[in-house]
Amino acid sequence: MRRDDVLTDESAASFASALPDGRWMRVEDAAHTVQGDNPRGLVEALRPFLRESNFSRVRRFAIASGPYDMIRGRPLEQDY
User: Fold this and answer.
1) 3-class state of residue 74 by DSSP
2) The model's pTM
């Protein structure tokens, strides 16, 4: 099992609990850069969360209305 040298399990759990609908779970064979260490494990961890969240509703909106900035919660500005 790899350990994150940046964030402890306790800190990660505390951070997740402070977010609305936040969750924390360990992805086996991964440390701080989960997407690089175990991408398949990351996807397996994210799937249930995304199914339960509003992500699918936001994604349908984004497809229907054009590019959408999910961080700011609004359509992307077109002058980039």
Assistant:
1) strand
2) 0.57
